Amino acid sequence: MKRALRSRALPAVALCLSFLACGADSSVPAGTGGAVASAAPRATAAGIEMLEAGGNAVDAAVATALVLAVVHPNAGNLGGGGFAVIRMGDEVEALDFRETAPAAARAEMYLDENGEAVPDRSLIGPLAAGVPGSPHGYFELHRRYGTLPWEQVVNPAVRAARDGFVVTDRLAGALEENADLLARFEATAAVWLPGGNSQGTGSTVRIPALAESLLAYADQGPVALMEGSIAEAIVEASERHGGILSLEDLADYRPVWRRPIRFQTFGWEVASMPLPSSGGIILGQTCGMLERLDWAARPREGADRAHLLAEVWRRSYADRYLLGDPSTSQATAEDLLSPEWLDQRAAEIDSERATPSDEILPWSGPPTESDQTTHLSVVDAEGNAVALTTTLNGSFGCGLLVPEAGFLLNNEMDDFAVQPGRPNQFGLVQGSANAVGPGKRMLSSMTPTVAWRDGEIMALGAPGGSRIPTGTAQVFLNVIVDDDGLQSAVDRPRVHHQWRPDAIWAEADALTPEARQELIRRGHDIRKRYAVGLVQIAMRTADGLCRSVADRRGPGSAAVYSPAKEMKQ
Ligand code: GLY
Asked: What are the pLDDT digits (tens) for 441-456?
């Protein structure tokens, strides 16, 4: 199988950032050797380096993810988890490397004596940390589908951690914004707030402990981090700060290959992430209901499309209340994506009036939000595609960096319904299906997605907490329904609704003044939102040209690759 998927050996090569543009995407560079989009230029360059070396989309995706674990510490990680959806040759797969709750995890740990959630307990410090899935996840992805030697794929991350990388404006801003969290833990502050000041723009950061961890990982794979001295250091740091991670938790962790959510929509074949992520189900429901509601015929400007999106999503996110780890979920993808259910949900929608969310499923409460996850998309010359989303959950996770390991631990436990019915940091209200339980995987919204049609293929997804499925869906619809080029598909302002709070969140310019008035008339509350996800997309068209776009709302970076001889064309 590996042999069949191996990228063909490439002749003399060069990174090409600005040629072969054509068609609706004339502003977007194209190349025949592949394309990568991620949240950081150095990470994207690592992906391109793998393509140049003859690697395939998986080699490129894993190298990109590992560099993000160094240069994008607010979300890239070895101490977190994530999901990947891939199409390699004819194989379509989903890898779940989501964190698991430690064996000692109990819901009561996050509650006070009155049964009320103590907010910081599931967000700050190692009690908030799930068992990291990324070390096994990246390795497993490469073990099954990669073609380059593992050490070569890890090498760009080793170089970044060992030789140093330059702090960007965005990272400097994130460090400053999160200085209080980072200052709580001595080892974290030593790396990210040296001398009490956050690393500023242009400074060079080296993280020798992380470089050593990565070298060991390159040599031995995940056991280097999940067993032995680094695992002991993780457990020791966790215990010292009130956490419950054990050596058994780390040694027992395994990623899971899952059957992706599959559906057809607007002539495209789609694969997206199944439980424990709600992302693929929400995307499938969105497309399924919109097809029933004559989406393609509605004008792009005006109130109709925003109204339909809001009505579809308030129902999808109410259905999300029933979802959780596959072992305890109270609904399945088959239930929520069945033609009968989609017919019923679509038929409930009144095209002239907003349905109050209470009429769908009652609840109310205040939202808070955070964005810190990261997504990367890759396509290669063979038409393979990888969509990979990974996270620490909150920015810089739980804030605790394990000194001997050089990386931060996540705060993914907050993605459980710590107190069912109470909103989490994304304002998401979740049910008992997603209650804390030992060994369980917390419900996610991550939506790594691959879609294809007649020789075209794309990979896309986003960070953005609860806004991941809605941001991803809008870009996808812009491409497949409205034939937007990738840049305009991503640039186009977006809206969001998540059932609770009962409001449309709109980016600036997402609604004309007339559309806004009309939506208010139909009964919608409208609030401002800076970014509905940061979508990274890569696509290979039937003519063999690969393009990628990183969302300009965030710190992203996109690049393409072509063999050098083709640059002369
Ligand atoms: N931590 C955000 C998510 O998984 O949806």
From this structure: 999 999 999 999 999 9
Judgement on whether residues 239 and 305 belong to the same structural domain of the protein: no
96, 323, 325, 373: which to mutate for ligand 1, most atoms within 8 A of CB?
373
What CATH number is given to the structural domain containing 475? 3.60.20.40
Give me the helix-helix angle, 57-71 and 150-163, nearest 10°: 20
Residue 373 bears catalytic tag = yes
pLDDT at 1 over 70: no
Taking the centre of ligand 1 as the mean of its atom positions, its distance from the CA of residue 13, in whole angstroms, is: 38
- Dihedral angle sign, alpha carbons of residues 291, 268, 490, 316: positive
User: 511-536: per-residue pLDDT in tens?
Assistant: 999 999 999 999 999 999 889 999 99
Domain range for residue 385?
Answer: 36-257+374-395
Q: Is residue 128 domain-shared with residue 229, that is, in the same domain? A: yes
Tell me the pLDDT tens digit for each residue of 360-383: 986 544 344 455 799 999 999 999
Please work out whether the CB of residue 393 comes within 6 Å of at least one atom of ligand 1.
Answer: yes
Q: What angle do CA 326, 332, 334 make, to 5 degrees?
A: 135
Do 283 and 476 contact (CB within 8 A), yes or no?
yes
Tell whether 164 and 182 lie within a shared domain.
yes
Domain-embedded: residue 23 = no
Active-site residue, from 168, 188, 373, 390? 373
- 77 CB near ligand 1 (under 6 Å): no
pLDDT in the model for residue 564: 79
- Alpha helices by DSSP H, 331-456: 333-336, 339-348, 357-360
